[in-house]
Structure formats: structure tokens, C-alpha cells
Please model this.
Amino acid sequence: MITTQKYLRATTVGEAISLAREHDHSFRYLAGGTDVMVNKYQGNDESPVLIDISGLAELKNILATETRLVIGSLTTLHDLVANPLVNLHFPILAEAAASIAAPVIRKTATLGGNLLCENRCSYYNQSEWWRASAGRCLKCNGTVCLATGGGKKCFSKFVSDSAVALIALGASIEIYDGSQELKLPLEEIYSGDGVNSRSLSPTAIITAINVPLKVGAKAVYKKLRKRESLDFTSLTTTVYLDSQGKTRIVLGGVHAKPVVVDGDISGGVEELIRQTVSGSHLVDNDTYSKEYRREMITVLLNRSFQELTS
Amino acid sequence: MRPLTLKINGKLYHLMVGDHEMLARVIREKAGLTGTKVGCEQGSCGACTVLVDDKAVLSCITPAMRCDNTEITTIEALAVEGKLHKLQERFVEKGAVQCGFCTPGMVMTALSMAPTLENAGDPALLMRKVKEGLSGNLCRCTGYKKVIEAVAEYVTESRLSEKNTNYSAPVAKVPTGAVGRPRPYIDAEKKVKGAAAYADDIVSKNALQCKFLRSVHSHALITAIDFQEALQLPGVHYIATGRELPVKFGVLPISQDETAMAVEKTRYAGEIVAAVAADTEEIAVAACRLIKVKYQPIRAFLTIDDSLNDAGEDERIHNHGKFNNNIHKKAELRFGDQQQGLKDAEVTTRMVFEFDGVSHGFTEPHAATAYWDENGLTIITATQVPHYLHRALAKVMEVPLSRVRVIKPYLGGGFGGKSDPFAHEVIVAHLARKTGRTVRIRLTREEVFLTNHGRHPSRMTVEMGISRDGTMQVLDADVAIDGGAYGSFGVVTSYYNGVLLQAPYRLDNFGFRTYRVYTNKPQCGAMRGHGAVNSRFAVESLIDDLAQRIGMDPCMLRLRNFLDSNTFTVGHYRITSNGSRESLEKVMQRSRWRERIGKMEKGRGLGVACGFFISGSALPIIWNELPQSVVHLKLDFDGRVVITSGSSDIGQGSDTMLAIIVSEVLGIGMDKIFVLTADTLLTPVDFGSYSSRVTFMAGNAAKDAAENLKREIIEALVKKYYAMPEELNFVGDRVFSNDKTVDLDWGEAVDILTAGRGAVSVSGKYISPKLGGDFKGAGAGLSPSYSFGACIAEVAVDPETGYVKVTNIWGAHDCGKAINPLAVEGQLEGSWHMGTGQAISEQMKYYKGLLFNNSFLEYKIPTSLDTPEIHASIIETIDPEGPFGAKEAGEGAIHPVIPAIANAVYNAVGVRITSLPIQAEDILSKLKEKKMSSEKSQPS
Ligand SMILES: Cc1cc2nc3c(=O)[nH]c(=O)nc-3n(C[C@H](O)[C@H](O)[C@H](O)COP(=O)(O)OP(=O)(O)OC[C@H]3O[C@@H](n4cnc5c(N)ncnc54)[C@H](O)[C@@H]3O)c2cc1C
Ligand code: SF4
Ligand code: FES
Ligand code: FES
Model:
């Protein structure tokens, strides 16, 4: 009936990974746990083994080199918001972090955990009873998508707000998998499949986030949600513009992965915005309708460009 | 389970804890510190906030195992040696504590953020930071205003104080409780300390836990239930199904249509099909999973239209009723001549409105504990109406009324949502009888949403006509409301949607027709402002439109048409005191309406609306000859007056109200008063907390009782002294005659009273006068008095996103007389917060009969950041029959705020709102329509 539940605590990255390997398919890393514990409560996460990595002091530093800011993955969102280096170099990252959940949660929630926060959907973030009543969808081992009324591909929403800002800033992440250290552009860890939304070895640990320092670059962050606190995103946008006119647009909440469009504003922004809209894949799985959210992409992006160029 | 040592509030607890057990449960149930509350278990309400190594964390999503070698601080640690922490003091003083359920979490959150705010600069910035900091802590009672003030003041004070001490020097406070003086609730201190026990805080030795299996179909026959396997599970004691509890119940005698569990068929997804009593909740849950139910689905009726139409054979939701559809109740009343009214009207307007259902959103989930002993059944439960539950339990358990005792402990908010007898209460009573054990139940937040009884989704067509001079001529409403699967208060709701439109304006030609339909969804019932909130919205929107059409200021139009004081409405309501005019003038002045209307910057707008509400239903729900309220007072040798009353304080402060009234009449301090309420064994019957009746009715009964006690004292004194009874004064803990020949302190007077007689008990009562007309339906909405009020809202609308931000609410409410102005303000602020929610963000959304947004994350109660600045004004008209002139203040205030917001949106962007909540999508599409039609009308 109930498989033995375990709570284990790792004190080093190495230990965490070996504990994970020991429990192979049945574990979940716990950083802040603010996403995992809610998913457990709803029965969406049934991992019997929790490996708590929140004590790994080595992953909690923020330091600046000449070319980049290195942020330990266990930095809490609260600390990120308060950090002078972050505010100095990447105010939109602080802004993004401050737009996540609510103040008390941010004291526990980590940046690494936010990057890997599970995709969401109105039909999925529900109790077991609810999902059983509705008929299970693809993301809970069912055969069809309920949000699209029968689709065969899951487009649960990618909701990490900090990732949207970080990808726009050209961030890469450092990953350790026990044997080798990898460094990847952040966007590469998102698969685009709403069921298994990350293409990352399950035992891998994100150790740090690198954000390159660029002189003269600017960015604007926006988040659409019903309430001014607590709420997950219905649409997150970031527009980044460097001094040469190179721009990067990143969206969250409109696809199973972040939508990224690179370009140059010399060709006008309309085409870029159009590309972004067509790159998104919205389904009705949010408190706002998909039509509205699609329309808002253009509105928020236009505003962002205006703010950047005015 | 394994051993875990936790250090909580400096003390070591050696506990056995499950690896995945959450800290909140461990603190509450294993360490026994129930001051920490649990409102959602999903990190979205903040009630469970505690400090771990001085950092605020949500204990409901924190694994307990994570917390060894840490210092955990809970609310219980704050008060030291009986003295409140200064932050707690500010909460109490400012009136930031109403039901108190969110309070421990608020205090802990504020405590952890306070040091970071000490250099937050100017007061406005500080307020903003406090608002932000509290934005993950939901409060449904206060509208956050007083909470924010309390925290800001604490921060400011600690910034100024040199000695950084968190405890004040003890001051000898002699609490007095005169009518009209603002004062905190008598139980605020207990609540702010986390010492007040709510239903789920009550520990009982050796109790069993109950869990439910709920239907996965909206409408289905239950063809088989097999629970043999579940029963085998070790730790399972009993499994009950619907057949064991066949007796029907319901809050209204005319709608006894509900059974505790589905019998033979289930009428909504989420209805209880079986109940398990087991040693632990986990076992009960596991047992529920093993129960096998076979269903045979029937066509589900999910909308008003579905249910108005004829149903197929054997498809009806209930079999009573003459016709082959799912209409539960039809009602129609007409006064004057509407045809003539329409002819006389020079300008008419007609609109169709649609409203989604909304939920009370109280922060404390339902919970109950039941047991049977030599005295029969005792149930301790979160209820607003112990009396009606008492009756329902006797009926369903088939025992005499004398074998049932209902106790209401501290209650974490109701707003109408705890005022029916509930299935879970009946079921634990039954399980307790079957097992011979104490049985407990607590609902999850999702189950609270499934239990519903919230505001009815409604659709209505309303037409109104006026003459060009602004005189209202006619009003006609055609209303359909979606009742869900059972009756609840629905018949009353149906009537209220119509009858409560006959004021505050004079309307000679007025009529309505209402339908309530059954649908296969959780049932709707009474919610703050019961019945008339949606139809009031419609009428106030029409008035706004008419004002626009005749080019008259909407405030002026309203002022022209108000009913007077001391008059009758067309439907024979007796209006006594009436503060409509004063209320509207007040909000016009405070919002600077005249200076600002029509001159707002683009996208900003002001809107106005008025309202009125009953101050206690004049008729009882179950017809009987009992007075509506009875209050007993006992005075013994110690000089203490014990008030006993069946009324229930649900966070609105009615216990304090009773104490103030008795203290005023007897001229004694609150330290000589003890209030015992809402225990149907010990306290005399009071019908409960619904229809805004408690201050008016129980307050009057308390006043009557206190006067009777005063008379007894006077009689004893005049026997002993030569004094004229009318010359004896009761003031300041003394009894003295005008000439001071009698001059006694309270104790001496009490000695004289009790000499040779002992404790004296007296009784007081309230019986409503005979009111109303002589026609069918005349009883609906009759009240000995009515409250009146007005709101002006200011909004900012983003024309590109359709986002509506409500920035300010100026509200005024005629409560007759504010017995406790601090409490009245709290009620008003809470009402306007709740109304803002219904206006801009709250709605119950369904997917094939399944509630989508059954959590505090997805059901969008405004946070502190979404709640506008609220400016409350109390209007006092001294009602001739209210206690010291008092009327209701708990519900009526919600009526004007919602249409005021919608009218402000119209003022801002010219979009008329006809459905709630106001949706950004809707605003945008209407703006586009407008643009297109204005482009068309432009010559090209
Ligand atoms: C009420 C509420 C509102 C919320 N609102 C938002 C919101 O607006 N926006 C938003 O993005 N999120 C929101 N969240 C979700 C969550 O709080 C955040 O995403 C948070 O940042 C997650 O961080 P965590 O440290 O708690 O992650 P955890 O829950 O500990 O982990 C999340 C996932 O990441 C994995 N993980 C964590 N750290 C690492 C690592 N270093 N290496 C490898 N894997 C790792 C975990 O195994 C897990 O799969 C909300 C949550 C709640 C309860
Ligand atoms: S998008 Fe479809 S498949 Fe994916 S979680 Fe939602 S309903 Fe399920
Ligand atoms: S109970 Fe923990 S946040 Fe609601
Ligand atoms: S006082 Fe905040 S929820 Fe009741």
C-alpha cells in the first residue's frame, strides 16, 4: 500500500548524487521543497525518497567575476531579491524573483528549484480525486489531453519566472552528475514535452547559474497574473536589448518550455513579436483564456520594446 | 515513523515522526501547540507560518525532518509571563483580530519581516512594504487594513524606542466597555496568543478520525458499494454508507432534501458516498481507496438552461415537484402597475446580467468532533447556527431534542458558509454512535470548496424606467439562480433576489419573478449579503446607465429617489431609521466626488452605488413561538455577571457586543463580565448568526436581561434604603442615588442583592414585532429594521490589457449606532474587501461539474496588495428599536461596493459590466466593439 517513505539529507553534492543513484527512480531532490511538497500533497509527486539538498552550503554563494555573476543554485529567491550585485547588474532578475509566489515562500524557495519547478495545468494541479473524476490526462498516465479535448501532446505550462529572465540574460547553468561537470545554456534543459518537461539526467544537480555581464545591455520583465502576489504566471515576458541592437525575447507560461526568439531590432520589432507569438503554443489550461494570453503577448512585448527604446 | 527531537519555543520535544510528515501537523498534533493554524496545506494562505531559526516558513509544506537542530518559534512563544509581545498588543489594540484564524500566521510573518523594515523611510513606503510582506497571508475578515496598521505602528514604534524591548511595562488597565467606545474584542488577546481553541484544535483522548469517499460522477446511480476489503485494513473501525442515514434534513423546513451521504444516487461530483472511521487519518484515507463503488451515470444538468428544460425519464435530480424539470422554486410578486410604470417612464433600460458563483473563503476549514455518553450526543463543531444544527441532528439521529448538545468553539470565519447543518456533522455523530468512540473530522480546503453553500450563480434580466426629471418609475426583474444539488437556504435566496430590491429607493411599480433550479453541482446557499448581492448589482448598474441617459449625476439621481425614514416600501417593509442620504453624502464628500467626477485622467474612473439590508429576519426559519433571542444573566456573590446566550460569535465580535451592552446598562467594567455562548446545553436558544440578526436581536435580549437585573438590584436596594428607584444610578462600578444617600460600590450592592437569596438569575428576550403585508411571500425580507449604505469606488483600467485595479473605496454604512466602532469598521472593511473579490477576481469555475479552482491558489481571494485603500465612515441614525439604536453592519455593506466598482469601470473606459467577476477578456472585447462602432459611425 504505502511504500516506505524516506527523508534523507545530503551534506555534499557528491553525497546527494550517490544517495540519488542508490534510490534511482524513486527519489526527488528537495531544495526549498515549496514546489515538491505541494505536488506531493496533491499526489502528483509520489517519490518515496526525498533527498534534501537544502543544506549544501557550497551552493549558496553569489559571486562576481569580471565577466559574469555566478549564483549558487540554492540561493533563495529572497536572498536573490536582496542581493546588491544582482540588483546592480541584473535588476530584472531581482524583479523576476520578487514576482514569484509570496514573500514567506521566497525565503525558502531556491533559484535552482525555481528553474526546475514542475510545469502546470488547470487539469493537472489537482487532487487525486479530481483527476480521477475528470479522467486522467497525459501528464498523469492517461491517454488524452483534457485541456485540448483530446490532443495527444501535453502542453502543460512552463512557469518558472526566473528562468524567463535568466534566459534573456544569456545565462548558462552548471550541472554536476557525479562524474562530470557540464555547462549548458539554460534553455537547453527544457524539453518542450509537457509530460517530461526537462531533458536533464534525473540525478544531476544544478550547482550554479552563470549570468554574463554585458555593458550597455538593458532588459524589461513583465508578468501577467490575476493577483499581485501568490499567483503563478499566466504569461511572463522578458525582452533583452544590447547596445548593438541585438535583442532576445523570452516567454514563459505559453508553451511547455520557454519560447526564445533572437533577433535584431533594426529590422523592426513587429516581425520579432510575430515570430514569438507563432512560436508559442497555448492551450486552455490557465485562469485566463488562451486567446487573451496570446493577445497579451503582443501587448506586453510592445510595451517592453517601448520602455527599452524610449 | 522514527524518533525526532525538535526544539520548539526553547523546549525539547522527543517525538515519533513520519519521514514525510509536515511540520505543521507535528507542531499541532504531536507537540500539542495548536496556536499554529492550518488553512490550506498547500502553501497558499500563510496561516501556518512559524519561525525556523528566526526565518518565517510555511510549516504546512516544510518536512518536519528538516527541522532537527533548529530553533522553532511558534505563536505560543511570543507572550511572556502573561504579557503580550508589543506586536501582539498592536494587533489587539488596532482591531486587527476578528475571527483570529489568520492571526498567528500574520503575527509570525510580521515578526520576521519587522527588522528589515526599520529603515523603510517614510510612512507611505512603510505601509507599502508591510502590504507586500503580508501578501502571502490571506485574511477574509479584516480587509487587511487594521492588520497593516498594526504592523506598521509596531515597526515605527520599535524604530523610535531606544530600549529595544518588546514588552511594555505593565499598565493597570481597568477595562470599561461603554457603548460607542472603540475597543478590541474581549477574546482578541486569547486569539493573538494562539490560545483560542478552534474546532480542529480540540484534542480528545483516543479519538477516531473520519475520512470520506466522494463521488466521481456528477449524476449517477450507485449500483453497488463494496467495502469489505477496506474494513479488513488494520485500524479501520467502521465504514458507513448512505443507507444507514436515510433521514433527510436541510436548513429550511421546506427543503429537507439532503441526506448525509448519497443514498442510491449521487447528485454532484464530490458528494459523500462512504465514510470511514479509523485510528488515524492516513488509515482512513487508505481505506477509502479500497472501497469499490459501481456507478451508472445519468445525464448531468450543469447549467440553468439545462435545468429549466424538461428532463428525460428518470433523469430528474430530485423526484419531488410536479413538473418534469429541475426547477426547485418559482416565485413572483408584483406591486403597483408595472405596465403603467413603463408607460410613465420616459427613459427605460434593460440589461441581462450573469454572475458566477462565489465562495465564502473563510480561512478555517470545517471541523467537528462528536461523541456520545450518558447525556446523549455532544458535537463540537464550527457552526454559525448551533440551534438549527441541534434540531437537524435530533431529527437525523432519531433522538429527542434533549439528547443533543451542540458546542461552537472559536470559529474561523463563516460569512454564511457555516450556517447549514452539514453532512459531515451528521456523519461523525453517526460514526461516534456506531463505534462508541469520539470521532473527529476536518475537511481539506478542497472539501471545503466542495461543501460550498456559496453565492448562487445567477442570471437575470432587469428593466428599469425613470422620468426625465430623474424620478424612478418602475423596476422589473426576472431572475434565475443555479442552486446546485440541494435546497439549503435557496428558497429564501430566491425571494431575496427580488424582494430586497424594494428599497432604498421609492419604487411604486415593482415586480419580479425568480426561479431556482437544481443542478448537479455542489449546493449553493447563503453568503454575506444573502440573496440580493447580484440583483443589487444589476439595479445599481441600470441606475448608472439611466443617469447617463438623462444626463444627471448618478449621485443626484439616487439622492432624488431615496425612501424617507419612517415610511413603508411598496411591499410593506416598515422602514424606521434610514441613513441612505447621509451615507451617500458622506462618501461624496470624502471621495471629493463633485470636484473629481468627469475630470479624471484617462483610464481612471469613479463609480457609485447604494444598498440596504435586513437587520435580522423577523421570522424564524423553523416556525415556532420561541423568542428570537434569549439571554440569561447570573450574578453571584463575586460580583461577576455571567452572560449566557445561544448566539455565536464567528469572528464578527458578537460576544464583545453582548458584554458591552450589559456593562453599559449596569455601569460595570468588563472585568466583571463573563460571556458564555453557543452551547445548546448551557445557553438559552438563539437562532444563530445569519441574516445579520445578532446585534439587533441578541443585543436587545441582552439589554432586556441587564435591565431586568438592574431592576432586581434596585428592588433590593429600595427595600433597604429610602431611595427612589428612578434616582439610582449605575455608573463606574458604583450604585448611587442622586443625593448620594445611597452610595455603594458594586460589591456592596451585590451583597445586598444576594443576601438571603444567593445568586440571582434573570432572563431577557427579543421578539420581533408583527410586520408585513397579507399576501403570499410577504414574509420574505421582513425585518424590524434595515441598514443602509453607499460606496464610491475608484479604479484604474488598463485599456490594452483590460486589467482593472481598484484603488480606493469610500464607504459609508448606517448601522444605527456603533456599539463598538472598532468592530463596525472591521466589518465594513471586511465586506468591501470581499466585495472587491467578487467584483474583480473570484469565481467558481467548473469543468463538467468538477470545480476547477478548489484551492486558495486558484480561487482568487484578493491579497493585501489587491485590496484597495478602504476609507470607512460609520453613519449613526439611532434606530428606535435597536439596542441603543444599533442595526446590522456585517452584511449590508457588501451590496453597494460591487456595482460601485463596475460603475467606476464604466466611468473610466465606457464599458458597461454585465457579468461578474469583471474579466479582462470581457473589457477588452467590449472596448474593441466600442471602437469599431465609433469608427463605423465616423464618416469616412
Ligand atoms: C503559493 C505558491 C505560489 C507559487 N508561485 C510561483 C510563481 O509565481 N512562480 C514560480 O515560478 N513558482 C511559484 N511557486 C513554486 C515554487 O515555490 C517556486 O518555483 C520555487 O522557486 C521552487 O523552488 P524550491 O527550492 O522550493 O524547489 P523544490 O520544490 O525544492 O524543487 C523543485 C524541483 O527542482 C528540483 N531541484 C531543486 N533544486 C535542484 C538542484 N539544485 N538541482 C537539481 N534539481 C533541483 C527538485 O527535485 C524539484 O523537482 C509557487 C509555490 C507556491 C506554494
Ligand atoms: S496540457 Fe493536457 S495533457 Fe498536459 S497536463 Fe494539461 S490536460 Fe494534461
Ligand atoms: S496552511 Fe500553510 S499556507 Fe495555508
Ligand atoms: S481575522 Fe483574518 S481570517 Fe479572520
In short: Residues 29 and 51 of chain A are 5 Å apart (CA to CA). Chain A has a mean pLDDT of 96.
